[in-house]
C-alpha cells in the first residue's frame, strides 16, 4: 500500500489485514451473523471470525455458494463453527423469514455485521417496489437489525458482553443528492444515477448506526453500532461497472486493497477490544474518521429511522 500504509492511532493502517487486526483475540463463545458472506470481504470476514473461534452464521442469498464457502472454511479450520442460512435482503418477506428462523434456533447473538451490498447498474425495483440499492443496502439491513435487536439485547444482558452492530458503508456516502436522502422521490426513475443512488444507500448505513447509538444510550443498553468504509477493493459489487473496473485496474497499485485488507476494518470494529464502548463512529483503515456533514445530521438520522419504519411496517 506504499504511502497509504502509515499506521495511525489504533496501530493499524490501510495495509493491515483482517487476521492481523484480530491477532490474539479469542472469540470463543460469541455468535455473529455476517450478511453477504459468499464472496469478497464478507467471505473473508466470516473466515477470520471463525478462525478466532466465533460461531459464524452466514446469511446468504445463494445457498449453494454458501455451502461451498462453509466447506472451504471447514477444510482450513476443521473446528470452525459455521452455519448457512438463506437471506435475500432485497425482499422484506425473506428478511422476516430469516429473523423467525434464527430465533427458532435459540442461538444468542453478539455481533451483527451488515455487510451485503449491491450497486444496481440500471434503475430497478425490489419485490417490495423499492429502488434496489436502497432496498438491499439499507432497508433490508434496517429490518434485519430490528428483528434481531431483542435477541442481541438479551444476549448482552445475560453474557455481560457488549453487543456490536457493524454497518459496512462506503466513502461513496459523500456522493449523494443535495437533500441526502430523497424521502419524497427515492423511487423516481427519471432522476436515477447509479452512483448517487448507491451513495444514498451508503449514507443511510451510517445514519442507521448513528440512530441506533442514540437509542442505545437512551435505553442504557450495553451495545454499540458503528459504520465503516472498507476501502477500494475489486469485488463483485463492481462486476458490471466497466468504468470502476478500469479505474481500479489503472490506480489499483496505489489505492486498491486486497480482500484480506478490505475485511480488516470490519473485523477490527467487530472484535478488537480497542472498540469497546465506542459507538456512533465511522471507521476507515481501522481508525475513527470523519464522514460527511450529512452523515452526522441527527435530524436526518431520526427522519430516516421513521421513514424506514413506515416502509417496513415496524411499530
Question: How would you concisely characterize the structure shown here?
Answer:
With 315 residues, this protein is α/β, with parallel strands linked by helices.
- H-E order: HEHEHEHEHEHEHHHEEH
How would you classify the helix and strand content by structural class?
alpha/beta
Strand order of the largest sheet: 3-2-1-4-5-6-7-8
Biggest β-sheet description: 8 strands, mixed
Write down the overall geometry.
Answer: globular
Strand proportion, as a percent range, falls in: 5-15%
Quantity of strands, as a count: 8
Indicate the mean pLDDT. 92
Kindly report how far apart the N and C termini lie: 47 Å
**What is the radius of gyration computed over CA atoms, rounded to a whole number of angstroms?**
18 Å
Low-confidence stretches: 241-254
Helix content: 40-55%
Work out the helix count.
10
